[in-house]
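Notes continue from the previous slide.

Worked example: a multi-chain complex. Inputs as given:
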Amino acid sequence: MTMTLSRRQMLAAACAAVGVGAVRGPASAATEPVRLRCQSRILDIKGKAAKVYGVHQPNGTSGLTLAAGEDFAVRVENALAEPTLLHWHGLTPPWRQDGVPGLTQPALNPGESFDYRFAVAQPGTFWMHSHNGLQEQMLLAAPLIVEDPTDSAVDEQQVVVMLHDFSFTPPSERLTSLGAGGHDMSMHSMAGHAGMDMPAHNPNDLQFDAFLANDRTLDDPQIVAVERGGRVRLRIINAAAATNFTVDLGDTEGLLVAVDGVPVVPMAVRQVPLAIAQRVDIRLTVGAGAVPVLFLREAALERTGIVLAPTGSAVAKLPSESHHMNPLVGTALEERLQAVVPLPQKPVDRWIPLGLVGDMAAYRWGIDGADALMVRAGERVGVRFDNQTPMAHPMHLHGHRFQVVAVNGAAVAGGVRDTVLVPANGSVSIVFDADNAGLWAFHCHHLYHMAAGMMAVLRYDGVS
Ligand SMILES: [Cu+2]
C-alpha cells in the first residue's frame, strides 16, 4: 500500500519535525529564562489513549534549542501531581544544577519551579530527562540541542528524533514484578521470536507494547518533508528506558559525524548501533525518493522509524516488524570511533576499577568498588569497568566527557562521550579529566538496573 501525502500534510509534518529547532530567542534570552514545564499529556499509541509525561515550553515546543556560547537559562516548572527534577544529560553544569534529586538538590514538589543558569560552551546533541524514580519511562524527557553557530552557514535541515520504549503497564508495577518474580510479568511470549540469532542470554530483560520515534509508532510514522536533493542532519537520541537500537538507513549512505554530541572522525554508515541514552549525529543527502530511517530494537523483530519525504515522493507503508532478527548492539562501532579532538596526552593519575555485578533472578544490580570513586580536582582519572553480568550496561558519568581508551582489553583512541556500553561479560576503560568539582551520579542508564542498585557517586575530595 502506498500513500501520497498532500502538500498540506507535508507542511504539517515539517512543522512538527522542526519544533525543537524553532525555539531560540534573540539576545534577550540571556536575561529571561526559557520556561520548561513538566506536565502530563495524552498520546494515541496503537489506538489506545496513553497518559504520559513531557517537557514543553509555553508555546508547545518539546525541549530546548540554544547556541553554543549562550547561557543555559531555564526555569523548570513542575506541573505534575508528583515531585520531579530534570537532568541535563551531556551538559557539564556546576554540580548543584545537575538535576539529580537527593544528590545535587531536592526534587521539585508539584507547583514549584527552579531557575538554572550556566554557560554552555560546547555544541552538540543532548537531552533532558527526569532523574526522579521511574519517570523517564513515563516519557518525561525532551531534546536539548546546542547548535554550533558556525553551522548556520551550512545549508542543511536539522531533524531531531527521540526514541522511546513504551508500556501501558505502570513502570513501578514492572519493577516490582521484576524483583518479585525474577522476570517481567508483562512479558509477551518470546517463543515465536526465538531463533538461531538469539544470544544465549537475551539482552532485553523487559518487553514493551510499543517503540516510538518522536512519539509515534511505525504504523503511523512522522513524515518529515525535505527538499529533493537536500542535505539533512539527523540528531538521534535514544531516550528509551531499557532498549538498545540499531539505526538503519537502508540503502542510503550517511556520514556519522558525532556521538553523544561530540565530533568523531566522519565515518560512512548505513547502520549505527545506539545504546540507551546515547546520541548520534548523521549527515545524509536525500534524492528524489523517500528515505525511511528505521530504529531496530536489539535482538528482536520490532522496529520504529520516521520517513524523510522529498517533495512529490510516494511514502510506502512500512511493516512494524523486521523479517529477520535485528542485530545485537555491541562494541564494533565503539572500537572504530576516533574523536576529532581527543583528550590531551597526559598520564593517568588514578585508576579506579569498577565491577558491574548483578543477580538476574533476584533482579539486583550493583557497582563493586564504588567506594573508591573519590578524585582530586586536576587529576587525570581512568575507570575500568569489568562487567561480570550476562547483560550489557550503558554506563553514564554526569558532569564530564570521557574518552574510551580500551574495549575488551584492546587499546583504542576512541570517541569522547558521556555514555558507553560495557558489553556482557566484557570490559571497557575510559579516562577523563577531573575538571568539574562536585558530586556526580555515575550509573547504568538502563532505568530498571539503576533503580535496582546500579548507581554510584563520583566524589571530589573536599566536596560534600
Ligand atoms: Cu545496566
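Summary box: The first strand starts at residue 2 and ends at 4. Confidence is low (pLDDT under 50) at residues 1-29, 185-199.
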